[in-house]
Amino acid sequence: MAGDTTAPAAAEGTRKQAATRALADVPRVPGAEKPDPVLVADGVVRRFGGLAAVSVDHVEVQRGAITALIGPNGAGKTTFFNLLTGFDRPDEGKWSFDGTDLARVPAHKVARRGMVRTFQLTKALSRLTVMQNMLLGASGQKGESLLRAAFAGTWRSQEKANTERAMELLGRFKLDTKADDFAGSLSGGQRKLLEMARALMSDPQVVMLDEPMAGVNPALTQSLLGHVKDLREQGMTVLFVEHDMDMVRDIADWVVVMAQGKVVAEGPPDSVMADPAVIEAYLGGHHDVSLADDSAAEALERAVEAEVEAEIAAEHSDDDAKGGRA
Ligand SMILES: Nc1ncnc2c1ncn2[C@@H]1O[C@H](COP(=O)(O)OP(=O)(O)OP(=O)(O)O)[C@@H](O)[C@H]1O
Questions:
Q1: Per the database record, which ranges form the ABC transporter domain (predicted)?
Q2: Residues 212 and 324 reside in one and the same domain
Q3: Which of 48, 186, 246, 272 lies most in the core, judged by the most C-beta atoms within 10 Å?
């Protein structure tokens, strides 16, 4: 079973080495075939009006590895996540999970088959308790019947087992003392942990994390990183979207870079971050930037920082607008 309930692995373990070995000979080109892909997408296109938000020719995600999906704002990363997990429908294309076609499979069934996701803005339901949030995860992100059961107090044996499993997971994520608190009372970082813990309720094979580090204060950063690495040590595959390049460098075995809906580069973190196609994707037309290794990496860091700042500014103006309406 994928998800046991041991404490986070202390350090990089044998699965990290196995993932590195498995990916060592994979060509560093967009669409590269992997030795053991758990997720394969072909010709996936999603248009919004005239804009092809996603137009991915081919991508494979290696089983048991941590793969980062990076790219500038608007590159199509979240839309691609939504498509793969059944939260949105593509205009064209097919994709499979563990050899099974996932086209037209709704999100809750995708989750039940073993591929779960978290969201960029955490969806922990703030007026439910931490435990109730966990129980929603047990039903593969569908949850209505369990929600009813949770309120009605009609525990059946399955629900008792789910509660025990939830408590184990909450213990692992140091949230067990908060089980009866409203999720709305948790800090941003604790909500991220709750999202991850909830995703594990269905014993997934693949965990997809949309910006796990966004809004997490430094005190919880290491803990979150440890938990993500731990997913790999337990045999799970992780695919995550992230702007934080330190995190990408620290934990990713492989990086897929998207720009304008397409996959433009792939490879291990260091090679991808020095790839001119990646610098180009982040910097757009600013060809005056030197692509020599050191300065390229620095230029990329600067470009990513600018992206993140722009995103934070946009979020603030959203908040201000909402505040103004309230
Ligand atoms: N529901 C929608 N309707 C119209 N356009 C959309 C919709 N969702 C996304 N888009 C557009 O599709 C493009 C890709 O957006 P997406 O959110 O997937 O990018 P992203 O790489 O995840 O960006 P970020 O890093 O900022 O989260 C953007 O131009 C966005 O404006």
A1: 39-285
A2: no
A3: 272
